[in-house]
Task: structure prediction
Amino acid sequence: MKIEISATQRKAQGTGASRRLRRSGRVPGIVYGGDRDAVNIEFDHKELYRNLTNEKFHASILTLKLDSGAEQVLLRAFNMHPFKAQVQHVDFQRVSKDKKIHMKVPLHFVNAEKSQGVKEQAGVVSHVLNELDIACLPDDLPEFIEVDLINLSVGKSVHTRDLVLPKGVESTLHKDENPVVATCILPALIVEEEVATAEAVPAAADVPTTAQAAPEKAAEGAAPAAAGDKAKAGDKGADKAADKADKADKKDKK
Result:
């Protein structure tokens, strides 16, 4: 798929000029590389933003249309506003057909739902990498690299050196590097629930709960307390009876 984007040469430079450009709905940018000097350019924000939402725009040879003619370029970098959906700046690099380019190409995962790990073992596929660094000539640049997960099972992984790269495309990894691309695992929530259930069964059978133990302790504490209250009441009654008897004796003596 051929993607074209239009731009015009930008004459005004500097921070103030770039701010005025953004307020008018334009985006400052630059195109560099090849045998020519870098050129300051500007884009229509709506067109550029729409293209940036397209995955292919990030990993394709683009046709940049300028007043001076069309150029084959790659998107190299772009800056976004911290909290607005606004592109602040964009960089493009010219490409030559006879020179290899280095690119990050997106990975497309297929057959995950048909794999043994998902279909038979109730596993979940985790994507560790979503893009791969490659080197190739511009004409050999793929839009994406396919990752087939059909043979993936729980506890197993797919590594970068397991991938089948298109003709003319090579990975930029060192010989001793072989990072994981995707792996299949059991959902952590299911595993945690099973472990918690297994630990809770013997605990419930052997140890009384706080709710069960509390009434028993309360009852044990209440019994001696009640007995002590009765004893105190009996002592007070005896003292009163003794006082009455003393008073009666004194009257009799008189």
About this structure: The longest strand covers residues 69-80.
